[in-house]
Design a protein that fits this description.
Elements (H helix, E strand, L loop, with lengths): L2 H14 L5 H22 L5 H17 L5 H22 L15 H11 L1 H21 L2 H4 L1
């Protein structure tokens, strides 16, 4: 085994001591995103780039801290997390999700879809990065953890 592989495995084993279960990662991620949405809405009147950046960072962090048995959950988490947060924001403050051409009396579903469209870039980057991190963690895991 090459020296760089040994260092990578040692680093992976050190990180494994601080990993969280899948339900814990989902709970912490949802809390972080709801907090980011609250901060964004306190600073401005609509969700914007700050919310998108927090979404990307939360998606990457979730993929980094989950145990190996929670990779599937974290792999499907970003879209579901975004839908959940946008639904919560739409119920709490319908005007917070604003998109060009969106009617003033738009319903919950229309606002959630408009929010997904407005945060599509963050969703693609966050989901892609989370899947890439999961792939890198699988490749870098010791052989006994890959089974």
């Amino acid at each position: 085994m090459a020296r760089w592989e040994q260092r990578l495995q040692a680093r992976t084993l050190r990180m494994a001591r601080r990993e969280l279960s899948a339900p814990a990662v989902v709970t912490v991620s949802a809390a972080c995103m709801l907090g980011a949405a609250a901060v964004q809405l306190l600073l401005t009147d609509a969700l914007g780039m700050f919310f998108g950046a927090c979404f990307v960072l939360t998606s990457i962090t979730a993929a980094l801290v989950v145990r190996t048995d929670g990779f599937f959950v974290v792999g499907v988490l970003p879209p579901l997390l975004l839908i959940g947060v946008l639904t919560t924001v739409s119920v709490a403050d319908p005007t917070a999700i604003d998109a060009p051409g969106l009617a003033e009396d738009a319903g919950l579903l229309q606002r959630v879809i408009a929010g997904i469209v407005s945060q599509a870039g963050a969703l693609v980057i966050g989901h892609g990065a989370a899947i890439a991190v999961i792939g890198l963690r699988i490749v870098g895991a010791p052989a006994r953890l890959r089974r």
